[in-house]
Amino acid sequence: MRKGLGGRLARYKLSLNENKTRLVDFRRPRNGQSRPEAFDFLGFTFYWGRSRRGAPLPKVKTSGKRMRSKLRAVNDWARTNRSRYPLPYIWAVFCAKLRGHIHYYGVSFNSRALQTFRKKAARILFKWLNRRSQRRSFNWKQFTLFIEANPLPRAVVRHRLY
User: Fold this and answer.
1) Is the pLDDT score of 159 beyond 80?
2) Are 62 and 85 in contact (CB under 8 A)?
3) pLDDT band at 143 (very low <50, low <70, confident <90, very high)
4) Quick check: 155 and 106 in contact, CB under 8 A?
5) Tell me, what DSSP letter sits at residue 137?
């Protein structure tokens, strides 16, 4: 399998990185067997979970490493742009960033991670909007009223895997 993949990539003048490439045993767990290990791929963590009826089912969620790096990027962006642009522009760009994240990571079984990202990103923006001058721009109640008037993108599943 590895040779075949290497051959396909060679046609396009690409090669496999042997340090990063590995085969993962991700077969369905049978009675008495331990769960196969989870693995990260393309920003998702693939793992075995249970369906509502109790049957083993492969599931995905946002990789913790990716989640932390994206929240760090939101923090850096909010810190550098908090007083550079007016609030309507900051809010429009922030919503666009959230929408892009939701469109990529909005897959089956990942709604909890999307909600977490949305809440933490909003808290980060609240923090930096309040540091635009010596006086606070919002308290939390005002900020929630602002969000109701200018809603954030909803964290919904965009791609159904099952």
Assistant:
1) yes
2) no
3) very high
4) yes
5) S
Backbone torsion region of residue 13, taken as left when φ is above 0, otherwise alpha when ψ lies between -120 and 50, otherwise beta: left
Confidence class of residue 113 from pLDDT cuts 50, 70 and 90? Answer: very high
- Measuring CA to CA, how many Å separate 108 from each of 15, 52, 96, 139? 32, 14, 22, 35
Q: With cut-offs at 50, 70 and 90, classify the pLDDT of residue 30.
A: confident
Treating both helix axes as pointing N-terminal to C-terminal, what angle do 87-105 and 111-129 enclose, rounded to 10 degrees? 160
Spatial distance between the Cα atoms of 130 and 139, rounded to a whole number of angstroms: 8
User: Cβ(41)–Cβ(59) under 8 Å?
Assistant: no
For residues 103, 109, 113, 115, the Cα torsion angle rounded to the nearest 10 degrees is 70
Dig out the tokens for 81 from the structure: 């742009």
Do 87 and 106 sit in the same domain of this protein?
A: yes
Cβ of 112: how many Cβ atoms within 10 Å?
Answer: 11
Domain containing residue 54 = 2-62
Phi, psi dihedral angles at 8 (to 5 degrees): -65, -45
Please check whether residues 15 and 82 belong to one and the same domain: no
